[in-house]
Fold this sequence. Notes:
The complex is a heterodimer of chains A (223) and B (266). Chain A has helices spanning 2-6, 27-40, 42-45, 61-75, 90-96, and strands spanning 9-12, 16-21, 49-56, 78-84, 118-121, 130-133, 136-139, 148-151, 155-161, 164-167, 177-182, 186-189, 192-194, 209-214, 217-222. Chain A is α/β, with parallel strands linked by helices and 223 residues long. In chain A, helix 2 (27-40) packs parallel to helix 4 (61-75). The chains are: A alpha/beta (223), B alpha/beta (266). Chains A and B meet through loops of A and helix 7 of B.
Amino acid sequence: MEQEIKGIVFKGNSEGLIIVIPENYDFEQALEEIERKVTSASRFFKGARMKVAYRGQKLTPEQEEAVKAILDEKSGAIIESFARDEEPVREHISHQNNNTHKVPVRGPFFTGIDEGSCKFIRSTVRNGVRIEYNGNVVVLGDVNPGAEIVASGNVIVLGILRGMVHAGADGNKDAFIYALNLKPTQIRIAEAIARMPEDEESAHGICPEMATVKDGVIIVEQM
Amino acid sequence: MGEVIVITSGKGGVGKTTTTANIGTGLAVSGKKVVLVDTDIGLRNLDVVMGLENRIVYDLVDVVEKTCRLKQALIKDKRYDGLYLLPAAQTRDKNSVKPEQMIELCDELRQEFDYIIIDCPAGIEQGFKNAIAGADRAIVVTTPEVSAVRDADRIIGLLESQEIRNPRLIVNRVRADMVKRGDMMSIEDIVDILAIGLIGVVPDDEQIIISTNKGEPAVTDNKSMAGQAYRNITKRIMGEDVPLMDLNTSDGFLSKMKRLFGIKPA
Ligand SMILES: Nc1ncnc2c1ncn2[C@@H]1O[C@H](COP(=O)(O)OP(=O)(O)OP(=O)(O)O)[C@@H](O)[C@H]1O
Ligand SMILES: [Mg+2]
């Protein structure tokens, strides 16, 4: 628990990744944790280009170099920059209460992800179609490449997800994305963004997976 | 009352005009009264593919602008009984025709013909809107390329939003050898994404290029593989149940299609 409260936090944003390093945190330990996290999430970083920023503890130039070296080596992504983000560290404060995910990103967001309004789409969502809904969205069909679904709640695809889906679009990090077969161009939950590595062999047929945000990073679990 | 079928694709150069010429000729050879309408205003070539270029006097724009009567603009193909062409204008642009005028034209042609086959221009702009305006059915042509399949998907969505339901799919220029090597999308992959019924698979066949240059559609050539594929498609359009040609593509794809249509919402 101790570890959890004080640990390193990864957050995705539209630019790339933000790493929150708590003040007075042991640097060696921070480095180790960053390596572990980045390795476990490399599936999503692979081949991507991103800017990485960090918040919280101020690092020396040598320490910054060391972190960047690990990101370069372990993420599989092209790290365009690694620098301190000067924004006030709201996450850090809430983090001490161990409830990062409850911090509103942009004011009040949709909270009906356990029980709330829901839109049903009864067909394949095709290239060029964008569906925006303030609530949860269930698609009874596939979501094809070039299609976009933007929902403030969860998105459930009872088919193959090949397009772009944004769940928790107005900031709810607890929102999830579920599909019977998940091979999206890109998925977003609240501010976190992930894309599938291009060379990954994806499963055929039905192989349900769910994407959620953990420590600011989108993770995918088989169901 | 005749049936209006639009041949469309989204992406250019995938074989709409070739398909229009072959299906139209195939239907005429089977004894149907057929008119081919070229709506690719400014870039017409159905007349060339049909070998009728030198007989054009009036065109589609003349008809909708009432410069001439419909009958005057129809070119009769002397080789096949019951086959006619309404050519596109070459020196005008797509905005010279409005969707309402196309609906009116199609209604008039329905009185006369069994099948009205419309050759649609590439893209999703005015020309596309005109071409589909009066259609009862649509055939979407794609090649086994990711970009062509993407565009086909977009087109199917647009057709559905225009209430043209259940379009049929033709996969053109398939090369069995490349599919086998994994260098080309399989029919199965394409049908999987587009989730519409397949009406035919046409092999990549140099005979098409030869026949196009001669102005003699391959469908009448008994030695051409593509011609055979188009003859089969013609029969399926007329409601016959013809098994898919064996291009030795992946074996289980018919059973896969069943599964697909069985579980997916239409
Ligand atoms: N099955 C085939 N095998 C070989 N060549 C083909 C085949 N189908 C079409 N082609 C060739 O591809 C080219 C494009 O075909 P076509 O003109 O029918 O396409 P289109 O979709 O009408 O193009 P546009 O969008 O420009 O109107 C032509 O040169 C044609 O001969
Ligand atoms: Mg054409």
